[in-house]
Amino acid sequence: MKLSSNQAEQWDKTVVQRHGHSNSTAGIRIIELHQQHIHHVGTLWRETEYKNFVPYSPQLDGLHVAQCGSSTEVQAAAEAGYHKLLLAPSHSLLMKSERVRLIREMLLAGTAGERDSALQKLLPLMTAEYEHMLAVLHRHAAIHGYVRLLDAPIMQMLPSIADLELRMGVVQRFAADSDLSVERHRLHQQWLKLKQWKQWLHSGNGDKCMLSSAVVEWIDMQAEALFRAEQRLANQGYDIQLTVLLPYEAGSWKQHVGCVRLAAEQILGVHATRSYPIVGIRIEHAVRAREDMSQSGRLGGLGGQFVLPEIDMDWEEVDFVWMSRGGEQTNEYDHF
């Protein structure tokens, strides 16, 4: 049977809408969490199951969080009924030219003052990024977001030594110019700092070492940007509650937690003593199961035994600990 022109047009619109909805939810993962309080340990949220995207239903058992990697996914998850979102922005957001330039300026700074200057220039850019991430939400939807702060491997952010030496060579030709002599000295200091970073990274620290692992001020700047974005949106009528979810870093987790709490107190004021959590620590844990795990990923029956990791941490220092099963799939090309 042939379709009339109006019917065909309506059919085409439906196909486009379905295709668009499919694309917006394809990367969303639904995480089921089991919450418990462990004596002498603290509040533990343990991932028990991963699911592909399904619209939220009140009949779902347990706590379900939608993990989103783009503003499109944030909007789709909220519209599907999810009020708890795990926001995991890709580090590709930091690869824009101006951001790369400022991050390199921070990493190659010769003094604490120069490093702080670069971080202060990054702050408004990161605030705008977080604000854009959350502004897609409906103003009257009560949303609780658990946010992994933007981070990136240091190795990917550093310039190459060859490129820096090329710039030094160009400046060297005009060294007689007094103005360029200052630039020559600055480039030489950056070259020395870059050599230090390269040697440090190749001495066993690996190419997966993140900015937050080596530059404590990075966490401070990111937390300030996030809470500033939350405050701006709250002033516009948004009902958004944000909790920072930090990766566990041996030896530095406590300092990172302190940075987040201080940023919340300075920006949110009395609201920083709110009833919902300010900061949690995310740890990948090992699971020992005496029964096979089902295809859905749920621990089999009562045979599954959860093993707490041995770490240098007083768990009561944080609002909660989020135990990830690991092996997650992320799309590094998602963009907020």
TrEMBL record:
One of its GO terms (molecular function) is pyruvate, phosphate dikinase activity. This is Uncharacterized protein. The lineage of its organism: Bacteria, Bacillati, Bacillota, Bacilli, Bacillales.
